[in-house]
């Protein structure tokens, strides 16, 4: 490709809403153009990078025997109604009526559609297992589209779905996809980690996220500094906490504690660390047609982790709440509970339908102080081990000062970008959509399913966040828009122009993805574009080139070296291998 013919509208103007360097440089480098909120065009350079990432993903997926297909983007809403997700998915699901007034959705994910295909064609265990994937458009009406391609509304995902006759086979495929993903992200040059994750609205029993560690990430992961343990904060576990010295030993009694509605005030009143105070967090679990009160008890210095709490509620009640909502002081008072003095004693008498969940760190805990469900009153000397059948669940946030649940080692919390997510779905969708096959004994069984997503366009942002400097895009070798740009310093100089063209042809013949900057522009402007666009290498055809001396600049780090005429092709072939 000749730069003089390339449509790459680069600009010095910084886009106003670009908070991240990846967003800024992709717009300034002429890779993408915003059309609306969370909606982007991919211009030739952006399309080219996307194509390289797609091809790499395809190569690896195909090598794992997954088969590529393309599913319809617009899906009849009836299919989503059948699985129950039409109501459940929330506002990210964009639906509309077609001219015949049939409701349709723009697919945010394709479990329903793929299950319908399998239901139609797979009748016997002999046709299993099967893994189908696509690299295609998704639409999610995100509440806060931002950061360019990182959180768009329309984006490209690689989504794969596997179908199995039993859970062992699903387990094997899950591990194979884990290996495939590790290969994909490693080949893309990413510094990534696989972490335990919550399954969210997609459902299923086990899931793992692949994340890139980066300051700008919207997620947080807890990582052990000594072993391989790593988990999204939404599910990160921790070892049982160490009890502070001098626990407040007391006989069980009610105590007058005037004006102590907060943990700070109560802690100061008794001169007791918050560890020994039992905090109550009240929420409303939102069900399809109603809401149910739920109280979570935690140690005073712990915080409720909302995702864990929601999962704990659903596990305990066998219900399917979508979220936990705040409860106002007024609503709490209406239940007959005194804000700031809520405790576990007699709670079920006061509010019969309340669900009560204790954090697992309180299991067997004694020397506790908790509210007495009366204003200005607390109980001291509370011993939870004397109660049978309390519902203990892991509901607290894991903090960096906690210890690793696997090895007791120190933990750290790091910001991360989710680039992939693999799930064991089990038979959630095969059941709701009645998709069955005949097993070896001739019995009808529901398919076991797995699903495996990669944010293909988000990967472009993640790569740039990891590598870019203040001058512009730095891509990994596998993703750079061109491997080499041959910069003719002064194309008016016929000899330089001819030499540049000759080397350009030689590099092309060596299967190097090369751009020839033959534009009649200033050398400085060409170098600025090299830095902004981020080809992996720039080969400078300047005055010394006529004497056989070529300057080679590596985009990552901007290091320079001089190479001789006869080793130009060989050096670049080796550098790019
Ligand atoms: P997030 O928590 O970031 O919203 P998710 O859990 O909803 O992601 P999945 O449903 O697992 O995402 O989708 C698979 C992959 O698609 C994600 O790992 C992510 O890389 C990508 N992805 C999800 N939402 C977006 C988006 N709005 N823009 C770009 N990529 C996205
Ligand atoms: Mg999401």
What does this structure look like?
By secondary structure, this protein is α+β, with helices and mostly antiparallel strands. The protein has 3 domains: 3-237 and 412-465, Bira Bifunctional Protein, Domain 2 (BirA Bifunctional Protein, domain 2), CATH 3.30.930; 253-393, YbaK protein (Alpha-Beta Complex), CATH 3.90.960; 484-576, Rossmann fold (3-Layer(aba) Sandwich). The protein contains 15 helices and 29 strands. Strands 3, 7, 8, 9, 10, 11, 12, 21 and 24 form a 9-stranded mixed β-sheet that branches. Strands 13, 14, 15, 16, 17, 18, 19 and 20 form an 8-stranded mixed β-sheet that branches. Adenosine-5'-triphosphate is lined by residues 109, 140, 142, 151-152, 155, 157, 200, 418-421, 453, 455, 457-458.
Strand content: 25-35%
Overall mean confidence score, pLDDT: 95
Number of strands: 29
Distance between the termini: 21 Å
Give the domain tally.
3
The CATH topology annotation of the largest domain reads as BirA Bifunctional Protein, domain 2
Count of individual helical segments: 15
Briefly, what CATH class of the largest domain?
Alpha Beta
CATH architecture of the largest domain: 2-Layer Sandwich
The low-confidence runs, each spanning 5 or more residues with pLDDT under 50, are none
The major sheet is characterized as: 9 strands, mixed
Please state the CA-atom Rg, rounded to the nearest Å. 29 Å
Net shape = globular
Helix content: 25-40%
Query: What is the oligomeric state here?
Result: single chain
Name the hetero compounds present.
Answer: adenosine-5'-triphosphate, magnesium ion
């Amino acid at each position: 490709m000749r730069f003089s013919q390339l449509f790459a509208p680069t600009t010095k103007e910084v886009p106003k809403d670009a908070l991240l360097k990846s967003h800024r440089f992709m717009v300034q480098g002429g890779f993408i153009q915003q059309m609306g909120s969370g909606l982007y065009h991919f211009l030739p350079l952006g399309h080219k990078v996307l194509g390289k990432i797609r091809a790499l993903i395809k190569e690896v997926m195909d090598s794992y025997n997954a088969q590529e297909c393309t599913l319809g983007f617009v899906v009849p809403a009836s299919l989503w109604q059948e699985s129950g997700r039409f109501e459940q998915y929330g506002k990210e699901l964009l639906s509309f009526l077609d001219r015949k007034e049939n409701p349709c959705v723009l697919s945010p994910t394709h479990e329903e559609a793929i299950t319908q295909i399998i239901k139609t064609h797979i009748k016997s265990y002999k046709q299993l297992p099967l893994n189908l994937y696509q690299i295609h458009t998704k639409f999610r009406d995100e509440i806060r589209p931002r950061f360019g391609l990182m959180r768009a509304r329309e984006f490209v995902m690689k989504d794969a779905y596997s179908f199995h006759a039993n859970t062992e086979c699903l387990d094997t495929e899950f591990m194979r996809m884990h290996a495939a993903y590790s290969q994909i992200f490693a080949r893309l040059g990413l510094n990534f980690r696989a972490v335990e994750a919550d399954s969210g609205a997609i459902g299923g029993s086990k899931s793992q996220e692949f994340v890139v560690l980066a300051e700008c990430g919207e997620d947080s992961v807890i990582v052990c500094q000594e072993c391989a343990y790593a988990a999204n904060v939404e599910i990160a576990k921790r070892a049982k906490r160490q009890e502070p010295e001098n626990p407040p030993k007391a006989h069980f009694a009610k105590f007058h504690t005037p004006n102590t509605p907060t943990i700070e005030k109560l802690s100061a009143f008794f001169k007791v660390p918050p560890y020994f105070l039992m905090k109550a967090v009240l929420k409303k679990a939102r069900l399809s047609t109603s809401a149910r009160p739920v109280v979570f008890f935690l140690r005073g210095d712990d915080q409720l982790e909302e995702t864990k709490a929601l999962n704990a509620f659903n596990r305990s009640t066998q219900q399917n709440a979508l979220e936990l909502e705040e409860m106002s002081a007024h609503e709490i008072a209406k239940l007959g509970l005194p804000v700031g003095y809520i405790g576990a004693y007699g709670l079920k008498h006061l509010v019969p339908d309340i669900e009560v969940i204790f954090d697992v760190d309180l299991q067997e805990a004694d020397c506790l102080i908790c509210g007495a469900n009366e204003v200005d009153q607390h109980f001291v000397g509370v011993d939870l081990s004397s109660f049978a059948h309390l519902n203990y669940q892991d509901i607290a946030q894991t903090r960096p000062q906690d210890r690793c649940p696997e090895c007791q080692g120190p933990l750290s919390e790091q910001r991360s970008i989710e680039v992939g997510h693999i799930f064991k779905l089990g038979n959630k969708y095969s059941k709701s959509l009645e998709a069955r096959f005949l097993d070896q004994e001739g019995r009808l069984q529901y398919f076991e399913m797995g699903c495996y997503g990669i944010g293909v366009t988000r990967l472009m942002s993640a790569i740039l966040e990891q590598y870019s400097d203040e001058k512009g895009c730095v891509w990994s070798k596998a993703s750079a828009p061109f491997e080499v740009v041959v910069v003719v310093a002064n194309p008016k100089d016929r000899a330089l122009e001819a030499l540049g063209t000759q080397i350009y042809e030689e590099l092309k013949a060596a299967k190097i993805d090369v751009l020839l900057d033959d534009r009649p522009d200033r050398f400085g402007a060409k170098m600025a574009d090299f830095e902004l666009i981020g080809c992996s290498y720039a080969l400078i055809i300047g005055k010394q080139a006529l004497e056989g001396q070529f300057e080679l600049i590596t985009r990552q780090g901007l290091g320079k070296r001089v190479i001789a005429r006869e080793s130009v092709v060989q050096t670049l072939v080796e550098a790019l291998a």
